[in-house]
Write a structure and sequence with these properties.
Blueprint lengths: L1 H57 L14 H34 L3 E5 L5 E4 L1 H7 L3 H4 L4 H4 L3 H9 L6 E7 L2 E12 L3 E8 L1 H37 L5 H32 L8 E3 L1 H16 L4 E6 L4 E4 L1 H17 L6 E9 L3 E8 L6 H4 L11 H6 L6 H11 L3 E7 L3 E7 L5 E2 L13
Parallel strand pairs: 7-9
Antiparallel strand pairs: 1-2, 1-5, 3-4, 4-5, 6-8, 8-13, 9-10, 10-12, 11-12
Bound molecules: adenosine-5'-diphosphate.
């Protein structure tokens, strides 16, 4: 206060002193007139500064704070300092808000903040994706006006914070499954969190289907074996012919279950992340010869079997896995080609130095709508035909997994009633030059 009043006070004292000192020179009247003139000048000075302050207050900005003269400096300088401090804390707050918004935008889940009346206070960009909300447009709106699904409204009203609500939402690019969780916080406010669980749900459905399929596949042979055993047990006088036939059929069913379990184990080994591909140099020319012999045994003279090892190249990969994949393709060709049909096994080098293994048959062929689904587990075009020929429905799923592990791709060309060609095309990087006498492929058990 002292400094604020110091300068005006000394100005008034100075004016009074000047008037007194001028008294002997100007006389009483002149000194009084001087006093009045000086006081008028002082008043004008203050009015001028007051007007400047008033004008500045119409649009107060830090860079336009007036430079005060005289005692007005005591007003303008602290004002400037105060505005500077305010600007600095504003910058700190803006930076913190920016960081918060950036973190909100980077969140993989949708976040919506609701006030005590369930009105939207804030939401992140993911909420726009998942719920179709837009912060600018929807701020202050009741969320249930915008998300009207009855399950969501009920869930919000129930105040259930322990169980997330699973909601199916339709979007431009298809359907999505959302897990929505409400979390109370602050003063009756709520956080609504939305997580995309579409992939997880799909995996869960696949897992459920898989378990159901395996159970179904095992139940049929088990029922057959169980039935025969009951009949044999009930027979008071054993009929040797009947017993022999029953045992034969039971053995057939048991080997069907064994094949299924073996294929399941193979699939699970191939899918396991703990089982990286053990690579070696594989002589494919030798492998295709072994497969050709296997096909002859399986065909038992019912088909014309051709072997075309056009290339002598070897391959960098895993012998057992490649034998299993190629073997499945060859056995499918035999199983799905009627008697007197033709089957050709080929190993060649395609354009771009891509090694390729293919099996062409003149069998029953496949309708185009099935082709994309053939590598799904247990997918069969004709279930009973697959079973009759000893199929497990897992052969092409095994092929697919082996190929993925070798960065190879499967191409299927087929004409119903005319036949099919299954080709496995490897990347050039897996190709190895022929190594003289082929010795690597292990003898097939
Ligand atoms: P499966 O044990 O039933 O043969 P796969 O996975 O090996 O199982 O094959 C899936 C389905 O693809 C088969 O059930 C069959 O319908 C079809 N398929 C596979 N190979 C051929 C082929 N060479 N000719 C006709 N259909 C085939």
């Amino acid at each position: 206060m002292k400094s604020l009043w110091g300068r005006p006070f000394s100005t008034v004292v100075l004016i009074a002193l000047a008037s007194l000192l001028s008294w002997p020179i100007l006389g009483g009247r002149g000194a009084l007139m001087l006093l009045a003139a000086l006081l008028l000048a002082l008043l004008f000075h203050h009015l001028d500064n007051l007007t400047t302050l008033y004008r500045w207050l119409q649009n107060p900005r830090l860079d336009t704070v007036p430079i005060g003269s005289g005692s007005w400096e005591y007003v303008f300088s602290p004002l400037r300092r105060m505005l500077k401090r305010q600007k600095q804390s504003e910058a700190v707050l803006t930076a913190a808000l920016d960081r918060f918004q950036m973190a909100g935008a980077a969140l993989p889940d949708a976040v919506v903040i609701l006030d005590e009346g369930d009105r939207i206070e804030w939401c992140n960009p993911r909420a726009a994706d998942y719920f179709g909300l837009h912060l600018e447009r929807d701020r202050g709106q009741q969320i249930t006006y915008l998300l009207r699904q009855p399950q969501f409204v009920d869930h919000l009203e129930s105040g259930n914070t322990s169980e997330p609500l699973v909601l199916r939402m339709s979007r431009d690019d298809g359907e999505m499954m959302l897990a929505i969780q409400q979390v109370p916080y602050g003063d009756h406010q709520k956080l609504i969190l939305g997580r995309d669980i579409t992939r997880w749900e799909r995996l869960e459905t696949t897992r459920r289907d898989f378990v159901a399929n395996v159970s179904h596949e095992l139940r049929t042979p088990l029922t057959v074996v169980g039935g025969f055993l009951e009949t044999l047990e009930d027979m008071t006088t054993p009929d040797p012919e009947m017993t022999r036939r029953s045992l034969q059929l039971m053995m057939q069913q048991t080997s069907r279950m064994t094949r299924l379990v073996e294929d399941l184990l193979t699939l699970s080994r191939l899918e396991s992340t703990q089982n990286p591909l053990r690579e070696e140099d594989v002589s494919i020319p030798e492998l295709v010869r072994v497969l050709h012999q296997d096909a002859q045994i399986l065909s038992a003279g019912r088909h014309r079997l051709l072997l075309k090892p056009e290339s002598g190249d070897w391959l960098r990969g895993n012998t057992d896995e490649l034998r299993s994949a190629f073997g499945n393709l060859v056995s499918n060709a035999v199983r799905y080609t009627p008697e007197n049909g033709e089957i050709e096994i080929r190993w060649e080098l395609l354009a771009g130095n891509h090694p390729a293994f293919s099996v062409r048959d003149s069998g029953i062929g496949i309708e185009p709508q099935h082709i994309d689904r053939l590598t799904e587990r247990f997918y069969r075009v004709d279930r009973s035909r697959s079973r009759e020929t000893g199929g497990t429905g897992l052969g092409l799923a095994i092929v697919k997994h082996v190929l993925v592990r070798h960065q190879a791709r499967l191409e299927i060309q087929s004409t119903p009633g005319k036949g099919s060609t299954f080709s496995v095309i490897f990347p050039e990087t897996r190709r190895l030059p022929a190594k003289g006498q082929a010795v690597a492929a292990k003898e097939h058990a």
